[in-house]
Amino acid sequence: MDSMGREVGQALAAQQMTSYTASWREYLKLLMLPKFNSAVMCNVRPTDWKDFFEQWNVLYSVLTVITGALRCVILVVTVVGIFFLPLQLLFSAVFLFFGHLGWYYVRARGCMMPQGYMFLALCYVAGAAIQIATMKSIWSFLISIPWLASLIAQCYGCLGLSGFLGGAPAPSTNAEQPASAPTAPAQA
């Protein structure tokens, strides 16, 4: 019985890894042709927190690539900064990875519990703190302001998804749904 459970677990893990790997293609399509809806993005109490999060997440990832490239240019121009270029490239790759991971769990899978959304928000805040602490010039900070704004909006979306901002937490789309209780026959 134990080996059967292990086989099922390994098969499930392999299926999820394939699903995660395949999700990169969909995510890259979103990044290449982003569709932003200002009515959703500027709404402080959206009706669909997942849609709110997804749009800000895509903007965050697009800005991660743009600001990362601009920071690399700044590092190359400042001769001393060239030594920090590999670190900047690593940060950009890590932030893009976490952008996709957040999107995958929130939008594609929808299986996080409220605590998971809060943890995701904390990860984004910690990453931003590390990025700010390692900035070497005022120009790096100034070009990062839109990126930071999109990060704050994502954290806000995570708080909304967790139910922290009022209302019920976002439903899990992949969780097992309880069987509906049988209804009593109508009495005449």
Layout of secondary structure:
Elements: H1 2-32, H2 38-41, H3 49-77, H4 85-109, H5 114-133, H6 138-162
Keywords: Membrane, Transmembrane, Transmembrane helix
Protein name: PRA1 family protein
Transmembrane segments: 58-83, 89-106, 118-139, 145-165
Features:
0% strand; 188 residues; single chain; mainly alpha; disordered C terminus
- Head-to-tail CA distance between termini: 51 Å
- Radius of gyration, CA atoms, in whole angstroms: 20 Å
Number of H/I helices: 6
Q: How would you spell out the order of helices and strands?
A: HHHHHH
Overall mean confidence score, pLDDT? 80
Quaternary state of this entry equals single chain
Largest beta sheet, briefly?
Answer: none
The global form is: globular
The parts where pLDDT drops under 50 for at least 5 residues are 174-188
| Helix residue percentage | over 70%
The class by helix and strand makeup works out as mainly alpha
- Give the percentage of residues in beta strands: under 5%
How many beta strands in the DSSP annotation? 0
Organism: Durusdinium trenchii
Protein name: PRA1 family protein
Transmembrane segments: 58-83, 89-106, 118-139, 145-165
Keywords: Membrane, Transmembrane, Transmembrane helix
Describe this structure in words.
With 188 residues, the protein is an all-alpha fold. It has a domain at 46-162. The protein contains six helices and no strands. It has helices spanning 2-32, 38-41, 49-77, 85-109, 114-133, 138-162. Helix 1 (2-32) crosses helix 3 (49-77), helix 3 runs antiparallel to helix 4 (85-109) and helix 4 runs antiparallel to helix 5. The protein starts with a helix and ends in a 26-residue tail after the last helix. 25% of the residues are buried. Mean pLDDT is 80; it is low at 174-188. It comes from Durusdinium trenchii. Keywords: Membrane, Transmembrane, Transmembrane helix. This is PRA1 family protein. The chain crosses the membrane at residues 58-83, 89-106, 118-139, 145-165.
